């Protein structure tokens, strides 16, 4: 009896109680770690589903936006106003919401794990008669998640573009002139497609190599656009290849000047308006533009991609010819003669010159179409 009293006074049972508390805390940490691992796995799967669904939607949009491939919307396309986009759009939005929820679950799981780890530190300190570390006295401070987050402005842009596209659809009726309907619909589709492409990239759907290639293509395209806008008098900033607020404002100014839908994205009508302004500027600018276009026409004619006149006038048909050449050369299909296109074409011509038995035209055409796989073409 006396021994029991001494034991109670000395706290003989505290060690067992402390061990029990530590074991319980360790079990909780293990459980919360598993929950975090499961949350990350779910988020990875949800992101993959979003990438797949959004890619399908972007492809469907391209039928009307004409950003990735040369397409020609028909009267039926305009009058039906993209009804075939409803399901791909719903799938992409649903997948996006699921991915967002899955990533939020990671944050919750991280917080719960941090709290459990703080409780374990306290239990261990109590069991050894020590003091819990200062970092363990709070309710838990989770380590910042490595999960990529999408900038809010990117999501906002998609939401606004979706709303604008719906408005464009609603504004097209049987009484709408065909050209006006086409311009209105293409402008909204291009803006929407560009918004989704930005979201697609920001969500991590591209590999590092794809991201690098896409960034280079966008930079080259934007730099060329900025130069054209500057020559036309709309852009006063630095030609840096960054499609930022200054470039958007310049495109919007161009669109306002030509009474086009103001989207900040370059659609077919905006591109045509810009080229018309460049020609109308006159003087050296117009002359250089005409000479440059004539050179493009002559080169494409030699390569077998252009059968129209060499008159220095840039038309939709010429854009289509350039895009076809780019596809065959395996370079980004921008519709413009950029550095990548010139480099690839020079290589093809150099290879053609090594075969002196054929005529220049047939040799260049053969070289372009046989030595470069069309299937290797990359979208901008």
TrEMBL record:
Residues 122-151 are annotated as: Disordered. Transmembrane segments: none annotated. SUPFAM superfamilies: PGBD-like (SSF47090). Residues 223-274, 294-345 form the Peptidoglycan binding-like domain. Residues 122-149 have a biased composition (Low complexity). One of its GO terms (molecular function) is hydrolase activity. Keywords: Hydrolase. Pfam families: PG_binding_1. The keyword Hydrolase applies. This is Peptidoglycan hydrolase-like protein with peptidoglycan-binding domain.
């Amino acid at each position: 009896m006396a021994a029991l009293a001494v034991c109670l006074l000395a706290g003989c049972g505290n060690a067992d109680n402390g061990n029990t508390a530590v074991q319980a805390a360790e079990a909780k940490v293990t459980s919360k770690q598993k929950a975090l691992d499961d949350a990350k796995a779910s988020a990875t799967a949800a992101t993959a589903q979003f990438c797949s669904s959004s890619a399908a939607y972007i492809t469907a949009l391209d039928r009307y936006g004409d950003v990735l491939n040369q397409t020609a919307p028909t009267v039926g396309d305009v009058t039906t106003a993209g009804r075939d986009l409803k399901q791909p759009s719903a799938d992409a939005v649903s997948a996006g919401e699921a991915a967002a929820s899955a990533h939020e679950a990671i944050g919750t799981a991280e917080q719960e794990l941090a709290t459990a780890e703080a409780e374990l530190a306290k239990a261990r300190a109590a069991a050894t008669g020590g003091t819990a570390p200062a970092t363990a006295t709070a309710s838990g401070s989770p380590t910042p998640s490595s999960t990529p987050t999408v900038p809010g402005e990117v999501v906002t842009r998609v939401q606004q573009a979706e709303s604008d596209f719906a408005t464009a659809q609603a504004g097209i009726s049987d009484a709408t002139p065909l050209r006006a309907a086409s311009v209105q619909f293409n402008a909204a589709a291009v803006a929407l497609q560009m918004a989704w492409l930005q979201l697609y990239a920001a969500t991590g759907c591209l590999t590092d190599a794809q991201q690098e290639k896409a960034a280079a293509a966008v930079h080259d395209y934007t730099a060329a656009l900025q130069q054209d806008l500057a020559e036309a008098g709309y852009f006063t900033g630095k030609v840096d290849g960054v499609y930022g607020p200054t470039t958007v404002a310049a495109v919007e100014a161009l669109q306002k000047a030509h009474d086009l839908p103001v989207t900040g994205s370059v659609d077919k009508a905006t591109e045509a308006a810009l080229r018309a302004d460049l020609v109308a500027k006159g003087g050296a600018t117009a002359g250089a533009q005409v000479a440059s276009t004539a050179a493009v026409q002559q080169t494409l004619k030699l390569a077998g991609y252009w059968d129209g006149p060499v008159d220095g006038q840039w038309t939709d048909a010429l854009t289509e010819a350039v895009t076809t050449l780019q596809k065959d050369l395996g370079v980004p299909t921008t519709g413009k003669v950029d550095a990548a296109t010139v480099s690839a074409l020079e290589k093809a011509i150099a290879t053609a010159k090594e075969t002196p038995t054929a005529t220049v035209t047939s040799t260049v055409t053969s070289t372009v179409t046989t030595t470069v796989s069309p299937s290797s073409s990359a979208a901008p």
